[in-house]
């Protein structure tokens, strides 16, 4: 029976060399995870005594090392690395789901994000609440075709911060060329907005002092003279500290609802002060014309944000990650892929950086986690073990031949 121990040693160390060779061969494979065997000793039992004899060695399991590999910068927009836990989830042409740490993606002719094998990266093409990311059925191939054109948006809100001079005379005007208040009869500024057709237009906002701590704001469009467009006015009341206490948010009604939205004018930060120059500090509005997608970026949480020709940025998709309770039990497949098994546990889907998921690193790739120095040392050990078992087997063979030749 002792020769069986040597034979098992030969077989096991041959398998060990194969595992090491595979690790070394994949030292440059993106997202590759090294493997190692778990050895166990074997014993035989005698029917004639209570003793057990060593029977050799076996491999009980081959485990994968899911420690992170180094992140290597590539400068390419669709190269993605995962920092810490998680897998990209990809869908093949037959509808089968696979998992990978290889973040080399590209766009196909239909604007799907695919890996190098043509499998679809899954996620969501719209931005929902986090509670929606709880089921594989909610995921779909990420496609950017829907985001090529950003539809125009008419202005529905204007935010304006003005500093009004408490000592100003009644009926003075804003200097529209530099947004500074002058000592004329009316303070006025001009702000560009967008109508429902995405066309840029100008509205006029004038401030008139009516009384102590009391002003009137008058909002008009260029069409208001023809009894169309926008023509609305409101009173503003300030307290003794110069804080606006009435009509902080004004609802400006349009006389042409087919062309204009009703606009909310937010004056919350407007103040009345003494001993200061009148000035328009800042203003903004939320309308914009139609835009064409120029580029996109992928953020650490997996959000895909597009930049458009109209200088707008818009969330256009969401990459979601998968993870498992026991990733070591995932089944390795060709092409830097894994598939789920019963032993790997139930798939959990989530947002990068949330609930234990790793974050994404744009323009980087995760290198193989193979340590070549360790693997070469292991190769030497496995070769010596193989040679030792071969020598043991040869010795056993000589003993058997000697016994056979006894006369």
Can you tell me about this structure?
Residues 85-124 form the Flagellar hook protein FlgE/F/G-like D1 domain. Its main location: other. InterPro entries: Falgellar_hook_FlgE_sf (IPR037058), Flag_bb_rod_N (IPR001444), Flagellar_basal_body_rod_CS (IPR019776), Flagellar_FlgE/F/G (IPR020013), Flg_bb/hook_C_dom (IPR010930), FlgE/F/G-like (IPR037925), FlgE_D2 (IPR011491), LlgE_F_G-like_D1 (IPR053967). One of its GO terms (biological process) is bacterial-type flagellum-dependent swarming motility. The structure is a single chain. This protein has 407 residues and is mainly β. It folds into three domains: 2-67 and 368-404, no CATH class; 71-147 and 296-366, no CATH class; 157-285, Tick-borne Encephalitis virus Glycoprotein, domain 1. 14% of the residues lie in helices and 40% in strands. It has two helices and 31 strands. A hairpin with a 4-residue loop joins strand 13 and strand 14 (180-181). Helix 1 (2-25) packs antiparallel against helix 2 (372-404). The relative contact order is 0.20. The model is unreliable at 172-185 (pLDDT under 50).
């Amino acid at each position: 029976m002792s020769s069986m121990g040597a034979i098992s040693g030969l077989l096991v160390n041959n398998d060990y060399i194969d595992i090491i060779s595979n690790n070394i061969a994949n030292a440059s494979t993106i997202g590759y995870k090294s493997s190692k065997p778990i050895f166990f000793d074997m014993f035989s039992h005698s029917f004639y005594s209570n003793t057990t004899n060593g029977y050799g060695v076996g491999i009980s399991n081959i485990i994968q090392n899911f420690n992170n590999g180094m992140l290597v910068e590539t400068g390419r927009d669709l190269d993605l690395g995962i920092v810490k836990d998680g897998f990209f989830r990809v869908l093949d042409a037959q509808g089968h789901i696979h998992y990978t740490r290889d973040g080399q993606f590209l766009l196909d002719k239909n604007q799907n994000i695919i890996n190098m094998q043509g499998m679809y990266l899954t996620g969501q093409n719209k931005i929902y609440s986090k509670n929606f990311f709880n089921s594989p059925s909610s995921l779909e191939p990420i496609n950017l075709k829907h985001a090529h054109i950003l539809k125009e948006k008419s202005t529905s809100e204007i935010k304006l911060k003005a500093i009004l001079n408490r000592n100003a005379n009644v009926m003075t005007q804003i200097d529209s060329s530099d947004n500074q208040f002058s000592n004329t009869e009316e303070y006025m500024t001009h702000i560009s907005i967008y109508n429902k057709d995405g066309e840029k237009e100008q509205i006029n906002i004038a401030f008139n002092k009516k009384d102590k701590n009391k002003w009137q704001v008058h909002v008009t469009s260029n069409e208001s003279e023809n009894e169309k467009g926008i023509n609305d006015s409101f009173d503003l009341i300030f307290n003794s500290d110069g804080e606006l206490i009435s009509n902080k948010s004004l609802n400006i009604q349009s006389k042409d609802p087919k062309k204009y939205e009703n606009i909310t004018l937010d004056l919350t930060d407007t103040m009345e002060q003494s001993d200061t120059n009148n000035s328009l500090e800042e203003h903004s509005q939320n309308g914009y014309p139609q835009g064409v997608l120029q580029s996109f970026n992928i953020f650490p949480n997996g959000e895909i944000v597009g930049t458009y020709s109209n200088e707008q940025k818009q969330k256009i998709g969401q990459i979601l990650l998968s993870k498992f309770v026991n990733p070591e039990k995932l089944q390795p497949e060709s092409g830097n892929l894994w598939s789920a098994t019963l032993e790997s546990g139930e798939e959990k889907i989530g947002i990068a950086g949330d609930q234990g998921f790793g974050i994404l690193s744009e323009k980087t790739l995760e290198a193989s986690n193979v340590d070549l120095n360790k693997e070469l040392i292991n190769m030497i050990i496995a070769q010596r073990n193989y040679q030792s078992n071969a020598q043991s087997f040869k010795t056993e063979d000589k003993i058997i031949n000697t016994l056979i030749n006894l006369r």
